[in-house]
């Protein structure tokens, strides 16, 4: 992040939690605006981009699938499709041609969004800043506008599917007469409204809460690394220094993974390189952001390994609940 003074943890965290926003009334870039006609450009851009990536990865395989010996990517797509199809068959007991493809799209779309959280905190924002973009948040699923819009879309789809499967008369009967009978119609209707509104809220807020918490932890780990570096202004070569030391950190992690039982191949670099880089950063021999970058990636790797479970689990939960809500919309009471 560019700054006109020493880098502080508070300024660093605030910088990474600020969206790139566009005011649709004035068509100007704004910052920390809560107005209705303001769009978080970065969230929309990355969510659309990741959705298109899913299409470009899976659509050619669907078109060119053959009955012969499949290639590796086709085998992977088939395994993923069979997994999602099995989950749909367990949760959705009606016949439908769009539920399984929709569940596949939801699972991988949310998964791709969540995977963005594993990228180094400063990687894309630093590259964007080099192009003149002041703020960039790369995790769409930590934006409540994205998660709630997805859940509201699921809610509208369930609402339509309920009318499609049961008709207006049966839907109205369930809304006004279930579960306490015709003499308690106002109570029945209020309970029905609360039940239906709780579905999109829980669906969207669950995904947002978990991914936002993970994002904040990554940012805090990155901010913690600032304490290991000498206070300094950000130099013009900050971007280059960041990526150079990011590569060194990745090489260190790779050596540890490759070393296995041979401590001198794996653990020795992990013990020596951090000490050398810390000493160089504190003495001013190395750029301050270089040491911060190195420690940022090392610290975030441990949390990232655990966070991978959360990333996959949240995508799976969003998919399963969507299918379950559609199944409930089609069931007759």
Produce the secondary structure layout.
Layout: H1 9-16, E1 21-23, E2 28-30, E3 38-40, H2 41-64, H3 72-91, H4 99-115, H5 123-130, H6 144-177, H7 185-225, H8 238-259, H9 267-283, H10 288-330
Antiparallel strand pairs: 1-2, 1-3
How does this model look, in words?
The protein has 333 residues and is mainly alpha-helical. The protein has one domain. It is 70% helix and 3% strand. A three-stranded antiparallel beta sheet has the order 2-1-3. Strand 1 and strand 2 form a beta hairpin. Helix 9 packs across helix 10. The chain is globular, with a radius of gyration of 25 Å.
Overall number of domains: 1
Q: Could you tell me the strand content as a percent range?
A: under 5%
Strand order of the largest sheet: 2-1-3
Average residue-wise pLDDT: 81
SSE order: HEEEHHHHHHHHH
Approximate shape: globular
Q: Give a count of the beta strands, DSSP E runs of length 2 or more.
A: 3
Helix content, binned percent:
over 70%
* Rg on CA atoms, Å: 25 Å
Q: Report how far the terminal alpha carbons are from each other.
A: 57 Å
Structural class: mainly alpha
What is the overall number of helices?
10
Main beta sheet, described? Answer: 3 strands, antiparallel
Q: Give the low-confidence spans.
A: 1-5, 230-237
